[in-house]
Amino acid sequence: MPQIEIRPAISSDIPLLMKIEPDCSTTHVWQMDYNSEPGQIGVSFREIRLPRPVRLEYPRSLSSMPDTWLQKDLFLVAAMGDQLVGFVTLVVDRETHTAKIADLVVAEKLRRQGIGTALVFACHEWSSKQKLHRMMLEMQAKNHAGISLARKLGYDFCGFNDHYFANHDIAVFFTYILK
């Protein structure tokens, strides 16, 4: 496999990044169970296998993404040779010393080959240099691959928000304490 280069994005990258398909296919989702009784609220998520694969649409509008990318605190791309194969955007909350990965996209044919991991680790490195204490990932509860990546990288589940995305999907949040 060719070497993956992670570098800051430049404005001329945007048209090429717009060609990367952010949607994915999944055979598993996290299903939320909610129980509310006097004095107690219980929420749990469990992984379930779907009867057939479904296409999971990216939760943000692709057409509006270029308008916001350059406003992020960090915008990195992954390149293999002269081809852009992924990107990540990061937003920093200085008050809580937390960096939140808002977008993490890898070209569909190259997923599960370490590109997403390399992008996340580059965010860890940058965030540590910024003296931030925590990384956070957000994703749809249906994004089994994203949840699997977060858990593989040592991120812990830290919450959810129902109807979080424009398409009304549940967002799940994972956090990682930087050393």
What's the gist of this structure?
This protein is of the alpha+beta class and 179 residues long. The protein has helices at 14-17, 65-69, 115-129, 144-152; strands spanning 4-8, 24-37, 40-56, 74-80, 83-93, 98-106, 134-140, 156-161, 171-177.
Name the helicity range. 10-25%
Tally of discrete structural domains = 1
What would the CATH topology be? Aminopeptidase
Can you tell me the CATH architecture? 3-Layer(aba) Sandwich
Outline the biggest β-sheet: 7 strands, mixed
CATH superfamily: Gcn5-related N-acetyltransferase (GNAT)
Word description of this protein:
The chain has 179 residues and is an alpha+beta fold. It has one domain: Aminopeptidase (3-Layer(aba) Sandwich). Helix content is 18%, strand content 46%. The protein has 4 helices and 9 strands; from the N terminus they run E-H-E-E-H-E-E-E-H-E-H-E-E. It has helices at 14-17, 65-69, 115-129, 144-152, and strands at 4-8, 24-37, 40-56, 74-80, 83-93, 98-106, 134-140, 156-161, 171-177. The two termini are 30 Å apart. The model has no long low-confidence stretch (mean pLDDT 91).
Descriptive key words:
Aminopeptidase, alpha+beta, 179 residues
SSE topology sketch:
Elements lengths: L3 E5 L5 H4 L6 E14 L2 E17 L8 H5 L4 E7 L2 E11 L4 E9 L8 H15 L4 E7 L3 H9 L3 E6 L9 E7 L2
Parallel strand pairs: 6-7
Antiparallel strand pairs: 1-4, 2-3, 4-5, 5-6, 7-9, 8-9
